[in-house]
Amino acid sequence: MLLERVYVIVFAIKAISAGSVDPFGWARADRIEFHIPWLPFENETRCYDELGCLNITRNWYHLIYRPFNVFPLPRSVINTKFILYTRTNPNTNELLKAQEDSIKKSHLDLKNKIKFIIHGFIDTPLSNWVGDMKDELLKAEDLNVIVVDWAGGSLPLYTQATANTRLVGLELGHFINYLVKNHGVDPADIHIIGHSLGAHTAGYAGSMVQGLGRITGLDPAEPYFQGMPAHVRLDPTDAELVDVIHTDGKGIFFLGYGMSQTCGHIDFYPNNGKNSTEFKI
Q: DSSP alpha helices (H): ranges in 19-120?
C-alpha cells in the first residue's frame, strides 16, 4: 500500500513537471504574501569586516527546495585557508593571506596562471582526489595551484555547511580581488575548480570578481540549490566560462547528491549524468 502511494506521488510530480518548467514555483517564499514562521532570519544582515555583508531575504527560501536558512559559523570557526603549491614547492604547502608580506615570502609566481581547488561537504584538503588533482595540474602546466581549506565549515550538519559556503565564497572573492588590485593579477587567468558544495562556493566567489576567467563545477550539490534562483547557486554569470560535469544526478531520493539541472555555459552528463562504476577517465 505504501509503495502504491509512492508511485502515485512520483507519477503526479512527473505529470506536473511535464507541463511546467518549474512545477514548484508556487512554493517560492517570495511569492507567499503572508508571514511564515519558518523564516527566522528574514531580512537580516550580518557583516564580516573587510569581506562585506551577507543577508537572508525571502528569495533564499523555498518551501520544498530550501526550507531552512541560517547564517554561517564565525570566521574563526570555519577558518578558511589558502594553501599554495607550485612546481617549486609541489609537496610543501605554503599558507597565503591577503597581505603584502605573505605574498612576497611565498612561491606565488604572479606571471603564471592561478587555479583554485575547493573541496565539498564532509571533505578536507587531505582527500586523495585533491592531492591527485594538484599533482596533475602542476604536471600539465607551470602554474600556481591554491587549495581552499574550509574543513572547519564543511563538517557540520548539511544545512549549516550550505550556509558556510557563502562566507567561504566571500573569503575567496576578497582574496582574488586583493591579488587583482594589489599585484596586477588578471582575473581572466584565474580558474576555480569546486566539487559538491565547493562548486557553489566558487559561484559565490566568482560573483564578486569582475571578469573571472573560468569556473569548473564538479557535481555541484543538489540539496538546497537545485531549483533555486541563480544568486543562490552556481550559474553562468559567475565567470566568463562556467563548465560543469554531472555524474551523480540521480536525485536525492535515489541517493544522488549532485544537480541534474544545467548551471553552466556548458554542462556535461557522462552516462546521462548518473553514477556508473564502469565510467572511467
A: 75-78, 100-105
DSSP at 131:
H
Neighbours of 49 (CB within 10 A): 7
C-alpha cell at 184: 596586477
Give the tens place of pLDDT for each residue, 239-272.
Answer: 999 999 998 755 554 344 678 899 999 999 987 6
Question: 10 Å Cβ neighbour count for 106?
Answer: 17
Q: Which of 200, 210, 211 is nearest to 261 (CA)?
A: 200
pLDDT at 24 over 90: no
**DSSP strands (E only) in 133-261:** 144-149, 190-195, 214-218, 241-245
pLDDT tens, residue by residue, 152-208:
999 879 999 999 999 999 999 999 999 999 999 999 999 999 999 999 999 999 999
Distances (CA, A) of 129 to 57, 62, 193, 195: 36, 33, 12, 10
Q: Which of 235, 252, 231 is nearest to 244 (CA)?
A: 235
Provide φ and ψ at 109, rounded to 5°. -100, 105
Kindly report the length of the chain. 281
Strands (E), the chain: 44-47, 53-56, 81-85, 94-96, 114-118, 144-149, 190-195, 214-218, 241-245, 266-268
